[in-house]
Structure formats: structure tokens, C-alpha cells
């Protein structure tokens, strides 16, 4: 079935990684895939544009159905392959509520993380302000503390939405992994660190670990002081 | 059943409005609700914090289940009340794919819109640059043209994901309404204008129209030249 699927992806992009984890969890290995280089601007190629008019990665399709937004792709895959592989949406209303809530709070986490890690990339030099970067770091620190508290409230060894792995983990883990790659302290965020450590060993995560992260495990220090 | 639900909301906030439209569509009228004032900083009140640690509106709960993120609340309501009121997720894989794709592309639309409409609110005076606001407007214009093209490809009278009203409309419509409130030209974006006109008359939308928009139909001109 996965032969009907094509994924164009970039190494280390959380949205790409989410789809790859979801595909592994749903036992949809064997899809057509191609690793493209952001540095070489390959995400702006015609090949990508034919699937994704935004010229962004991921570009993903299943048959004629196009799902370039990572949340969309993950929701769709779970819906279309509900009984295959890992069940990614829990049955119970409480677990389901928590899963959806965390999944979508991750939009804030990801935004705030990007506003620090990619500040120089996103803001032209003439428009940069130390005050803005400082504020972005404070906002991110508050956000990270919120997630640390969320994890404190869960039982040891829990996933984000309870005892079962769910879409919340598929969506949020790549963002958490990013934070540690850019120097977040496991000492100051021990629950997030424990979650990161547990998830790193999950087969779907190991199988899809960004190849350039294997070569260069350390991404930078921009979150070291948070 | 809706007596188990509480919504704290602010007038004109797209995330609040989405939940209200979804509740109407799922025939969940009669929920406990309270209109709070952003201007009076009531979203930072203890009442909100008890439900939403982010001190943001909406703050929504169903029994003990908390769903403050509008996407989360809408997904949850559809999942928990699947057979009640309007079916918000289509059955067919193609319609479902398009629905999810548009729902999540709306995150970009909303971000880009906010980066123009709220530029002065978000960026402290000392950090503002005409070049940044100009770029934000160009980015938003490109985004709006993309949505206009999406609607061009649909049959006349279609909803965002096809002939049936869906979660995509619940999520995206408040953002489109915002754009026209801030002066977007129905002449330059005729398909978006037609969609706006059709949706405005939908009972769930009329029943939840932001009260302060009724008093002051025009929000501003910041999108007039786009």
C-alpha cells in the first residue's frame, strides 16, 4: 500500500520527521522517498512544486491525495489506516482530549523555539535587536517550563498524553529533540530530558533519525542558557 | 450534554469563534459561557488561569477534559459527538485529505495575517521597521493569492474541502472574515469574497458572529491595499 505514497523530505525538519515517524508506526514502510537538501535550495525545485505549491518540505502524497502539512498527513494516515500498526488516537475521551490539547500546544512550542534558534536566519541583519532576541528567549523559557510541569504531572515513563504512545508524541517529539540538539539542559529540564531519552530508543524514531544529526550530533548552543 | 461544557471567550478571536461554530454545528447549544474583555485584561484572570495556564482565550472544558487550543477542541467535539449535528469530517479519503490539508495550511494564513494586522501590537516601537511590515504584507499577499487560487479550482458554491461543510470551514472561515474586516478587497479576491458571502449566512456563523463586530462592522484598513 505504501508504494502509492511519495515523500520528499529534508533531514532534521520536524514536519518531515513527524510524517516519517507516523509512517513507521502505521507499518507503511516501503514508500517512495527522496532526501532533498535545504542548503542547495532543492525544496524550491519543480519536483517539490508539483506536490507542494509552497515550495516547502515535506511534500507528501498518497495516490492523488496531497498532504504537505505534517499535522494533516499524520491525522490522515491514522484515519485511513486505523487498524494497522500502532493506534495513534486513544479511545478514552480524557486521553483523547489531552492528546489533542498537547498536539496543538506544540504549535506554540515550535514557534517559540524557532524564534530563538532561527532568529538570525529569519530576521534580516538591519532589523535585528538584542532586545527582541532576549525577549524571544524569555518567552521560550516560560514555554519550556510549562512543558516541564506538564511532564512532572504525568507518571514516570508516561508518554505525552498518558500511558500509550499517541499522535501527541509523533508531533511533539521532533520539537523536543530539536531543543536538546540546540543545547537545552537536561539538568534544568529533567522530565523533558527523561522523555527525550525514552523516545530516542523507540524503533520508529531510531529508524527515522535525521541522517545529518547522526554525523553531527550537536547542532548549536543557542538554548544552552535557558 | 452541553451543560457539562464551559467556554470563556473573547469577541472576535478566531480561536474562540471556531469553537463556538463547532458547538453550534454539533447541536451543543446551552453550554456555560462567559464573554471576557481582552481590553480589560480579563483573559489574565484567575478564572481563565484555572482552565488555561497560558492565560489565553478560549478556555474550554467538557467535564474535566480541557481543550483550550481551538483545533484541539474542534477535533475533540467531532470525535465525541460524531453522530450528532453536522458531520464535520467527510468520509471519502480525497475529501478528508483536502480538509486536513486546508485546515493546517490555515495556520500559515493566520500567522501571516496577524503579522500585518497586529504588527504594532506585537512589535515594540523601538524594534519596528517599515521594511519588515512591507515584507509581511508581501508575504500575506502571496498567501492570499494562493487561497484565491484554491477557491478558483473548486466548483462555485463549494466549501473549502468540497461540496460538504467541514472542519476546514470551521477553522478557516474566522480567519477569512478577519481579512475582510480589515479591508481586504472582494474585488481583487472575488472567490474568497464569494466564500465569505456564502458562509456569513450560515446559521452557526450568524449565531456566533462576534458581538463587537455587529456594533462596529469595520475593523480597519490595514489590508485594503493588498
Which blocks of ≥5 consecutive residues of chain A have pLDDT under 50?
Answer: none
Helix percentage range of chain A: 40-55%
Whole-number tally of structural domains of chain A: 2
Outline of chain A: globular
Tell me about this structure:
- Chains A, B: One of its GO terms (molecular function) is maleylacetoacetate isomerase activity.
- Chains A, B: Residues 92-226 form the GST C-terminal domain.
- Chains A, B: The chain crosses the membrane at residues 159-180.
- Chains A, B: Pfam families: GST_C_3, GST_N.
- 2 copies of one chain form a homodimer.
- The first copy, chain A, has 226 residues and is of the alpha+beta class.
- The first copy, chain A, has helices at residues 14-25, 46-49, 70-80, 93-117, 119-122, 130-153, 167-181, 190-200, 203-206, 211-215; strands at residues 5-10, 32-36, 59-62, 65-66.
- The first copy, chain A, has a 4-stranded mixed sheet with strand order 2-1-3-4, with no helix packed on it.
- Chain A binds chain B through residues 53-54, 62-73, 75-76, 79-80, 89, 93-94, 96-98, 100-101, 103-105, 107-108, 124, 126-127, 129, 131-132, 146, and chain B through 53-54, 62-73, 75-76, 79-80, 89, 93-94, 96-98, 100-101, 103-105, 107-108, 124, 126-127, 129, 131-132, 146.
Amino acid at each position: 500500500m505504501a508504494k502509492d505514497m511519495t515523500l520528499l523530505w529534508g533531514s532534521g525538519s520536524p514536519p518531515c520527521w513527524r510524517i516519517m515517524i507516523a509512517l513507521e508506526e502505521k507499518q507503511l514502510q516501503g514508500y517512495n522517498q527522496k532526501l532533498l537538501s535545504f542548503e542547495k535550495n532543492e525544496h524550491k525545485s519543480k519536483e517539490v512544486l508539483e506536490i507542494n505549491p509552497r515550495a516547502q518540505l515535506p511534500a507528501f502524497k498518497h495516490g492523488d491525495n496531497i498532504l504537505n502539512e505534517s499535522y494533516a498527513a499524520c491525522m490522515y494516515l491514522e484515519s485511513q489506516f486505523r487498524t494497522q500498526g500502532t493506534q495513534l488516537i486513544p479511545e478514552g475521551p480524557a486521553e483523547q482530549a489531552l492528546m489533542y490539547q498537547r498536539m496543538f500546544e506544540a504549535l506554540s512550542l515550535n514557534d517559540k523555539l524557532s524564534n530563538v534558534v532561527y532568529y538570525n536566519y529569519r530576521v534580516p541583519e538591519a532589523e535585528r535587536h538584542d532586545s527582541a532576541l532576549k525577549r524571544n528567549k524569555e518567552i521560550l523559557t516560560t514555554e519550556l517550563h510549562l512543558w516541564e510541569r506538564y511532564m512532572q504531572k504525568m507518571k514516570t515513563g508516561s508518554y505525552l498524553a498518558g500511558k500509550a504512545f499517541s499522535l501527541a508524541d509523533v508531533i511533539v517529539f521532533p520539537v523536543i529533540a530539536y531543543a536538546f540538539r540546540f543545547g537545552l539542559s537536561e539538568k534544568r529540564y529533567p522530565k523533558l530530558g527523561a522523555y527525550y531519552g525514552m523516545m530516542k530508543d523507540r524503533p520508529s524514531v531510531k529508524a527515522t533519525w535525521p541522517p545529518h544529526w547522526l554525523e553531527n550530533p550537536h547542532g548549536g548552543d543557542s538554548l544552552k542558557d535557558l
